[in-house]
């Protein structure tokens, strides 16, 4: 085989330097919490959990006399297979899979080997591993448990950390006036805190929607009708047993399925994450723009280099990295959302390989959240620059002036202010002169004369302070 360039080895040992994707390479330390959950090891571990829990459930069904109630020691042994499941155990399952060429059957055989040489009663029940199950009974619950743990234990806490950082910015800067830019042009002032509060509020809503997505599971056999269950034990209410079992895992039960749980909830979850990510992407771009305008300075770190040729530069790279990684996250999540709910007839296998990539979208999302958090920590408000921009744009007071003129019946107020301000240099003096010449009550005139671009912020300060209430 011809090498790609002179000196490159034909084979490389897998490491953070040789990993195919940056999630397992360059960014390994930033997403490592997801590896025990969404990796191949994680999938096998959750499959083992489901198989063990199902055997224990069978032991509790009076009609299934062939699986007796387990002693405390026997239950402890079985539960230990789950809680002590190691990477070496996963390697053993993979060795069995090389023979079976079937990943779920390999888990069943692995567990049978663990019980085969044990004393009564465990060795007598080995054929009740995977009883009446199709592979997807095990897989769909394993995937559900992966998503539940990944979202609740990793993703939501980092989302909350991000929200706390943004709401902190909102409150600390609630009073700091800032020129707005609609269509990229100067517009009515706001406050820096209010603009941060907008993002905090939007992200909070999407975070809540994510947390409310109902994670579903099925356990109904080869085509969703309990065919094999009823053939073996016709007297048992298998739909009730299946629901009890699925709910015992902390997962909601889906009674109407084919061979697979139809994955609609996974689409809902990923679409919800995409919406959260899109709001954060909007935040990243706005912060980038505010840095560009000089509204934020960035705290420098000793030894860091912004440009290899321009020594003065301190680039907003954290927000740029966040934006770029959100793109990868959303592409992966979108494919899961669009593909997984579609399966030919009672099932096809196209979902299997796609589901193995569940961790990709979450991995890039987690990376993006931490990029943004790191960027926020480096921001320093440049009040002088904010104030300077406001001082140069007295024309923004055209809005309140013409609005007050409307109240007091002054004809053509909009047109008069348009003539005064549009395409012309507007100063504090020209605005004051215009106000003094208005035929409106003196108290209204006094209020307008006290207005400045810095004070014309409406309810922005209060809104910013109340944003996380």
Automatic annotation (TrEMBL):
Q: What catalytic activity does the UniProt entry give for this protein?
A: N(6)-(1,2-dicarboxyethyl)-AMP = fumarate + AMP; (2S)-2-[5-amino-1-(5-phospho-beta-D-ribosyl)imidazole-4-carboxamido]succinate = 5-amino-1-(5-phospho-beta-D-ribosyl)imidazole-4-carboxamide + fumarate
Keyword annotations from UniProtKB, A to Z: Lyase, Purine biosynthesis
EC number per UniProt: 4.3.2.2
What pathway does the UniProt record associate with this protein? Answer: Purine metabolism; IMP biosynthesis via de novo pathway; 5-amino-1-(5-phospho-D-ribosyl)imidazole-4-carboxamide from 5-amino-1-(5-phospho-D-ribosyl)imidazole-4-carboxylate: step 2/2; Purine metabolism; AMP biosynthesis via de novo pathway; AMP from IMP: step 2/2
In this chain the Adenylosuccinate lyase PurB C-terminal domain maps to 343-457
Look at the named UniProt entry and state the broad enzyme category this protein falls under: lyase
Domain Fumarate lyase N-terminal, by residue range, is 25-324
Kindly give the InterPro entries that the UniProt entry links to this protein.
Answer: Fumarase/histidase_N, Fumarate_lyase_CS, Fumarate_lyase_fam, Fumarate_lyase_N, L-Aspartase-like, Pur_lyase, PurB_bact, PurB_C
Q: Which GO terms describe its biological process?
A: IMP biosynthetic process
Q: Which Pfam families does UniProt cross-reference here?
A: ASL_C (PF08328), Lyase_1 (PF00206)
**Single GO MF annotation:** N6-(1,2-dicarboxyethyl)AMP AMP-lyase (fumarate-forming) activity
Does the entry feature the keyword Membrane, yes or no?
A: no
In terms of PANTHER family, this protein maps to:
ADENYLOSUCCINATE LYASE (PTHR43411:SF1)
The UniProt entry's sequence similarity note says: Belongs to the lyase 1 family. Adenylosuccinate lyase subfamily.
This chain belongs to the protein called: Adenylosuccinate lyase
């Amino acid at each position: 085989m011809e090498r790609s360039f002179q000196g490159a080895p034909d084979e490389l040992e897998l490491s953070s330097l040789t990993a195919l994707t940056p999630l397992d390479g360059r960014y390994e330390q930033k997403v490592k919490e997801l590896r025990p959950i969404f990796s191949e090891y994680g999938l096998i571990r959750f499959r083992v959990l489901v198989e063990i829990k199902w055997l224990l459930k069978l032991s509790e069904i009076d009609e299934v006399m062939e699986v007796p109630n387990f002693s405390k020691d026997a239950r402890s042994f079985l539960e230990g297979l789950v809680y002590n499941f190691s990477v070496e155990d996963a390697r053993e399952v993979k060795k069995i899979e090389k023979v079976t060429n079937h990943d779920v059957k390999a888990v069943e055989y692995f567990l049978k080997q663990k019980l085969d040489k044990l004393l009564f009663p465990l060795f007598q029940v080995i054929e009740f591993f995977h009883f009446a199950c199709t592979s997807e009974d095990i897989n769909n619950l394993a995937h559900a448990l992966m998503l539940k743990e990944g979202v609740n234990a990793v993703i939501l806490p980092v989302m909350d950390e991000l929200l706390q950082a943004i709401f902190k910015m909102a409150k600390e800067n609630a009073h700091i006036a800032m020129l707005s830019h609609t269509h990229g042009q100067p517009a009515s002032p706001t406050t820096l805190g209010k603009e941060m509060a907008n993002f905090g509020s939007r992200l909070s809503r999407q975070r809540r929607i994510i947390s409310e997505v109902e994670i579903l599971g099925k356990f109904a056999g080869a085509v969703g009708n309990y065919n094999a269950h009823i053939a073996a034990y016709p007297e048992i209410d298998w739909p009730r047993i299946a629901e009890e079992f699925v709910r015992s895992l902390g997962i909601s039960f889906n009674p109407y399925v084919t061979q697979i749980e139809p994955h609609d909830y996974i689409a809902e979850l990923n679409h919800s994450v995409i919406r959260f990510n899109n709001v954060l992407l909007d935040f990243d771009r706005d912060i980038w723009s505010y840095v560009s305008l000089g509204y934020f300075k960035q705290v420098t770190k000793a030894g860091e280099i912004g440009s290899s040729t321009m020594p003065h530069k301190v680039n907003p790279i954290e927000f740029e990295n966040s934006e770029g990684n959100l793109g990868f996250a959303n592409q992966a999540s979108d494919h899961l959302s669009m593909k997984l709910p579609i399966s030919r007839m009672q099932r096809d296998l196209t979902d299997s390989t796609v589901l193995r990539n569940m961790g990709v979208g979450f991995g890039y999302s987690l990376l993006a959240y931490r990029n943004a958090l790191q960027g926020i920590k480096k921001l320093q408000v440049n009040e002088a620059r904010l104030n300077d921009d406001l001082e140069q744009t007295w024309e923004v007071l055209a809005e309140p002036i013409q609005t007050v003129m409307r109240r007091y019946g002054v004809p053509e107020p909009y047109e008069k202010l348009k003539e005064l301000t549009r395409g012309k240099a507007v100063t504090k003096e020209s605005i004051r002169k215009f106000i003094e010449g208005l035929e409106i009550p003196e108290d209204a005139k006094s209020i307008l004369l006290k207005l400045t671009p810095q004070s014309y912020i409406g309810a922005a300060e209060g809104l910013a302070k109340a944003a996380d209430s």
